[in-house]
Amino acid sequence: MSRGLGDVYKRQMKKYAMAACLFMAALNVCAQTKEKDSLRVIDLQEVEIISTRATGTTPVAFTNINKDQLKKQNFGQDLPYLLSMTPSAITTSDAGAGIGYTTLRVRGTDGTRINVTANGIPINDAESHNVFWVNLPDFASSVKDMQIQRGAGTSTNGAGAFGASINMQTGDFSLKPYAELNGSYGSFNTHKETVKVGTGLINDHWSFDARLSNISSDGYIDRASVGLNSYYLQGGYYNDNTSVKLITFGGKERTYHAWNYASKEEMKEYGRRYNSCGYMYTDDNGTAHYYEDQTDNYVQKNYQLLFNHNFTSAWNVNAGLHYTKGDGYYQEYKDNRKLVEYGLLPYEHDGETVKKSDLIRKKAMDNWFGGGIFSVNYKGSRLHASLGGGLNRYDGDHFGKVLWVKNYIGTLDPDKDYYRNNATKNDGNLYLKADYELCDGLNAYADLQYRHISYKMYGQNDKWNSVTGDGLQQLAIHEKFDFFNPKAGLSWQINRNNRVYGSFSVAHKEPTRNNYTDGKFTEHPKAERLFDYELGYTFANSWLNLGANLYYMDYKDQLVLTGELNEIGEAVAANVPDSYRMGIELMAGLKLPCGFQWDINATLSRNRVENFTETLYENEDPAGEKWSTYLGDTHIAFSPDFLLNNRFGYTYKGFEASLQSQYVSKQYMSNLDCKDHILDAYFVSNLNLSYTFALPKIKSITIGCTIYNLFNEEYENNGYAGSGFYYEDGQKVRYNYAGYAAQAGTNVLGHISLRF
C-alpha cells in the first residue's frame, strides 16, 4: 500500500464524516412515520435472510444473539471475543487483549472451517477460508442479530462449514431519528470511539444510517499496537412489499506483528510480554532495537446491494450483489537471509563476498471478490421451502519487494518484484431446502446443495526450494471440485416446552491456498469430507431453559499437521484417512423475577486422529533423514476435551452486573500427543458493571466498566509447536519446541454510551 492509498482513505473518511453530519441534520427534518406502515417494514426486514437461518423446527444446534447482547460486551474487543460465551467456542488473541489479530474456534475447528456470512453474503477470504476480523473493526456495532450454527448446519453461501456457521444480519434501523455516541478507555492505552446516526423512516419509505469508529491499543504484548478505523453506511427504500438497500462498510488496520509468540524459556528470561518480532540488534549498552515498521497494513471496502420482495404472504424473493476490494501489505526485518532467494546478486563488503545479509522485505496483496446471491422462499401452513444459491469470483495478486539490504552495494529497484503470483477462484452453489410438518409437532427437514469450485494459481511463490536449490516454488495449479452436500433430519415438538431433534449431514471442503503452497511442492492435497450426526433435546418455559446436543463428526481426508516438512522446512498439513470429533453440549438458563439470571453451558468431547503416523526430520532439514513413528489414535490439535462457560447476571432498574467465567481444559498444539506441546488449562473471569439512566434531551446514558481476567489468571490461549531429531552416540534423540501466546492479566475498560 502506498502513501497515496492512505491519503485516499483519509479523504474518504472525511466524506463519510460529512455524510454523518448531513444525517444529523436530517434528524430534525424527517417526517413522522405511520405505525402500521412501519410494522410492515419491520416484517420485510425479518425475511431478508430467512433461507440461511435455522428455526425452531430445524434439526441443528444453534444459538441466536441479538443486538442488545452484543452491545453489553462491545467495548473494544474484536467480535470473536463477544461470542466467547457461546457453546463450544474459544478465542485467541495475538496481542493478548482481544484486539487486533483474534480468532474463534468452535468444537475445536479453526476459522478456516467456520462459514461466515453477512446478509447472506460470504465474508470468508476465498483463498485462506479465514475471516480476518481485524479488517472488520467494530463491525458488531452495525450487526442487528446473528446466529451461530454448530456442525455442518444448513446450506448457505461461501466456503463449506466444517465446524460452525456464523450468520450475521446488519442494517437494523430505528423507526425514529437517533444519534448515539460510545466511548471506552482502559488498560494498555486501549480506547474506542463510535458515532452512530440514523434518520429513522422518512416519508414512510426511506431510511439512512451511518457509523464511524476508531479503536486503538498498545496491546498487552510488547509493541503489539493496533490502530483500527472503520465505517458503515446504509441507505434503504421500503414500501409495503419491497425493500432495496445499499450498504457499504470498510476498515483500515495497522497492526504490529506479534505472531512469533514466545517460548517458556524466553518468558522466564524476558517476561511474559516478550515479542521477538522485528528484532534487529542489541547495542553496546544492552538495549535491544526493533524495526518500527514491522507492521501489517490493510484496507478493505465492502459493498452490498440487497433486494427483497414479498409477492404474497407466502412467497418472497431475496437477491444481493456484492463487491469487496482489498489492498494491503506487511513489512518485516529478516536477518541472515540468502540473497539468491530474493533475486539479488552477491556483493563485496570489507573485502568479502556477501551471500547472506539482513534485509527488509514487503509482502503485498491486491485482490477483489464479487458476485451475487439469491433465494426464493415459500412459507405455507405446513411447508417452508427455499431455493437459493450464489455465484462468486475472486481475483488476487500476491507479490513481494525488497526495501533494504544491509551494506548493499548498488541500487535496489523499488518496483522490482522478487516473486509474484495470481490466483482466481470461481465458486457457485445451488441449494434446495424444505421443512414439512408431517403431523402435529413433527417436522421433517431436507436440504440439498450442489457446489462447484474452480481454483487457479500461477506464478512464482515466496518459497525457495532448499532441497534442489533451483529457485522459487513454481505455482501451476488448476483444480476443480464438485460437491454434493445433502442434509436431512426430524424435529419433534413433543409439547409446548419439550423438543427433540436429530439430523445427518454431509459437507465437503476444498483445500486452502496454504494447503497447496505449504505442502509438498510436487503433491497436491485432496478435498475433505465430513459426515455430521446430531441428536438434541431442549426444554423451555418462561423462567427455565435446558438443552443437550450429542454430535459425532466423522472426517475423511481431514488436513492435519503430520510433523513432516516441505522443501523449505515448513510444517506440512497432509490428508489423514480417518479422524473424528464427538461430544455432548449441555446448556441451561435460569431467569427469575427478582432480576437474577444464570446461564451455563459445557462441552465434553473426544477429538482424535485415527492410526496416525508422525514423521520427523534430522535437524528439521527437509533434505535430511526421516524418522517415522506409528502413534495410533492421537488428539487433534487445539481441541480441548472439556469447555465450560458460566454467567451470573443481576439487573435492578438501571443497574446491571454480570460475572462471566470460562474454563478450557488442556490442549495439544500438534497431533503428536507430545507433553511438550501442551497449552495448559485455564480459568478466566470477567466482571461487567453498568448503570443506565436518562436525562432531559438524552434518551439514555450508560456508564460502566469491565474488569477482564478478574482473578489475574496467568495463561496462554494459542501457540505453535514442532519437533525434530539428532544423533547422539549413534542413537536418535528427539527434541521438541513450542511458542505460546501469553494473555493479559487483570485489565480494565471503562465505557460510556449516550443515545439521543
Summarize the entry for a quick read.
The protein is mostly beta strands. 8% of the residues lie in helices and 59% in strands.
- What coarse outline follows from CA principal-axis ratios? globular
Report the strand count. 38
Biggest sheet architecture: 22 strands, antiparallel, barrel
CATH fold description? Maltoporin, Chain A
Quaternary state of this entry equals: single chain
CA radius of gyration is 27 Å
pLDDT under 50 segments (min length 5)? 1-39
Strand proportion? over 45%
The termini sit apart by 39 Å
CATH superfamily: TonB-dependent receptor, beta-barrel domain
At the first level of CATH, what is the class? Mainly Beta
| Class computed from helices, strands and strand pairing | mainly beta
- The share of residues in helices is under 10%
Helical element count? 6
Can you name the CATH architecture?
Beta Barrel
User: How many domain regions?
Assistant: 1
Average pLDDT taken over every residue: 90
Topology (SSEs and partners):
Blueprint: H1 3-26, H2 35-46, E1 61-66, H3 67-71, H4 79-82, E2 89-93, E3 102-106, E4 114-118, E5 121-122, E6 143-150, E7 164-170, E8 178-186, E9 190-198, E10 206-217, E11 226-238, E12 242-256, H5 264-270, E13 279-282, E14 288-290, E15 295-310, E16 315-338, E17 347-349, E18 352-354, E19 356-379, E20 383-405, E21 419-439, E22 442-464, E23 472-493, E24 498-509, H6 513-517, E25 528-540, E26 544-565, E27 571-591, E28 596-617, E29 626-635, E30 642-652, E31 655-664, E32 667-668, E33 678-679, E34 682-695, E35 698-708, E36 716-728, E37 731-742, E38 747-755
Parallel strand pairs: 4-7
Antiparallel strand pairs: 1-6, 2-3, 4-5, 6-7, 8-9, 8-38, 9-10, 10-11, 11-12, 12-15, 13-14, 15-16, 16-19, 17-18, 19-20, 20-21, 21-22, 22-23, 23-24, 24-25, 25-26, 26-27, 27-28, 28-29, 28-30, 30-31, 31-34, 32-33, 34-35, 35-38, 36-37
